[in-house]
Amino acid sequence: MTDQRPIVLLLSGPNLNLLGDRQPEVYGDATLDDHVATARATAGAHGLAVEHRQSNHEGELVEAIHGARGRCAAIVVNPGAFTHYAWSIHDALAAFDGPVVELHLSNPNAREPWRHTSVIAPVASGTITGFGGAGYRLALDAVADLLGRTP
Ligand code: CA2
Predict the structure, then answer these.
(1) Topology at the third CATH level for domain 7-146
(2) 46, 52, 104, 136: which is the annotated catalytic residue?
(3) Residue from 55, 82, 102, 106 whose mutation best tests the ligand 1 pocket (most atoms within 8 A of CB)
(4) Hey, which end of the chain has fewer CB within 10 Å, N or C?
């Protein structure tokens, strides 16, 4: 039988595939697979399914967002460094109808000044930053709430 659950597209931007390997003092010890597992477990408790895509290429993330239109109920996106300058991702998300949650492991606002600007925030329903891996649970809880799903 096919999975009938609403789909949440979880998008991971550049270099996030390296999580668990370098800079654990900033991003923690967990791998991206660990975070995806957290997101899937949380989504599952809300009757939601997670489809995950990681890319180091801006255009691939734009295409993934286009592919979510009319198919996915919501998007959770950690755009990595694209957060700070990728207007094409901003525009693609603006053309998506459902809730969009921007997610960061670290708190970019407490880091270098160039990380203080997010071009994604204006098209996000909300942003979760600085809670490390717990952010993946919080983001999926937020999506469930925005979709009106009660636990
Ligand atoms: O805190 C976050 O989640 C960020 O989106 C992570 C991005 C950074 O550019 C944003 O300002 C905040 C960078 C992800 C890079 O991840 C690495 C992991 C291991 C080794 C090197 C990079």
Answers:
(1) Rossmann fold (3.40.50)
(2) 104
(3) 106
(4) N
